[in-house]
Design goal:
The chain is an alpha/beta fold and 301 residues long. The chain folds into 2 domains: 3-121, Glutathione S-transferase Yfyf (Class Pi), Chain A, domain 2 (Up-down Bundle), CATH 1.20.1050; 138-275, Rossmann fold (3-Layer(aba) Sandwich), CATH 3.40.50. 45% of the residues lie in helices and 10% in strands. The protein contains 15 helices and 8 strands. It has helices at 10-14, 18-30, 49-52, 54-70, 81-96, 98-108, 121-128, 133-136, 157-160, 170-177, 201-217, 228-236, 238-245, 256-263, 268-271, and strands spanning 3-7, 33-37, 75-77, 117-119, 144-147, 181-182, 222-225, 253-255. The relative contact order is 0.15.
Length: 301
């Protein structure tokens, strides 16, 4: 029986990171999960609202949660790490501040209960995918990979309560289960330059360049991410990275959902990897051995 869960794609997954949404939907369908978009959702204001207008920065995510609540969704998956951070932080703040919640409720014309379970993509995988991968996996992802979590997926720990802040392991464990060899490296949660991708590509070049170069220098064959902004900076801004580092960097960047889809034998169109700026020249050749069925002997009477 197909399970249904709320889905907030956010602006990036509807535009510049369309391939991320394609891979997430492909992954969910493979495990009999229907992702139902939050009705009439809006931008969460992740990159700018909290720097410009405090009450707006609360009201935008609150309206999304209100629309999910109105649709009787008790759980929503939010693949974008920035959106996940904003929705989770705002729900946390509104839950503990009655006056602020009352003000925001008046603006969005709704009564928030602040009890929706918000999942990032790794939590979604842990809850709906991880236990069933072995039965559906067709190819071993037998590559050396660098799992990159970025700034927002695990911080602040006291609110998000997800993984370890400095040395997270959740994506590493998922990739290990697919047959990959995650490297041990110190750049897991370093900043990629985030929202400065347009305004200061020179800063993005230096910050993201160090991340990509370190992964490549340690022998990684792919960088695994869970954030559209991180992917954009590491993939689309590769010319700026190479200029800052003074060398050619060819290592591809994959969303964790795409890595799983590839292991399931999904096509390039289904995974969205054909949309990347840096070519994903990774071929999975080794098939997963079919499980052997052992029949027990029974004594004849």
């Amino acid at each position: 029986m197909q399970k249904k869960i709320g889905y907030y794609p956010g602006c990036s997954l509807e535009g510049s990171s369309r391939e991320y949404s394609e891979s997430v939907v492909t992954l969910a369908n493979a495990f009999d999960v229907e992702l139902v978009q939050v009705p009439d959702w809006n931008c969460c204001g992740a990159t700018a609202a909290h720097n410009l207008n405090s009450i707006l920065s609360f009201s935008l995510p609150a309206r999304i949660l209100a629309k999910a609540q109105e649709a009787e969704m008790d759980t929503i998956v939010v693949p974008c790490a920035a959106c996940y951070n904003r929705l989770t932080m705002v729900q946390h703040e509104l839950k503990k501040d009655d006056a602020l919640r009352a003000e925001v409720n008046g603006i969005i014309e709704a009564e928030l209960k602040c009890d929706i379970k918000i999942l990032n993509i790794v939590q979604f995988i842990q809850m709906f995918v991880a236990d069933f991968v072995a039965s559906k996996q067709q190819f071993l992802f037998d590559k050396k990979v660098a799992c990159y979590y970025g700034c927002l997926l695990v911080r602040p720990h006291d609110v998000l309560d997800f993984d370890r802040t400095e040395d997270p392991q959740s994506m590493d464990e998922v990739m290990k289960s697919l047959g990959a060899n995650p490297i041990d490296w110190p750049f897991k949660t370093e900043c990629c330059g985030a929202g400065m991708s347009v305004s200061r590509t020179d800063i993005v070049g230096r910050l993201s360049g160090r991340i990509v170069k370190e992964a490549a220098d340690r022998g990684a064959e792919a960088i695994i991410v869970a954030c559209p902004m991180c992917h954009s900076n590491l993939d689309m801004r590769r010319p700026a990275l190479e200029k800052a580092m003074g060398e050619k960097l060819t290592i591809p960047v994959l969303y964790i959902s795409q890595a799983i889809d590839m292991a399931l034998g999904k096509s390039q169109k289904e995974t969205g990897i054909n949309r990347h700026f840096v070519p994903v020249n990774i071929s999975l050749q080794n098939r997963v051995a079919a499980p052997q069925v052992v029949l027990e002997k029974t004594e004849e009477n």
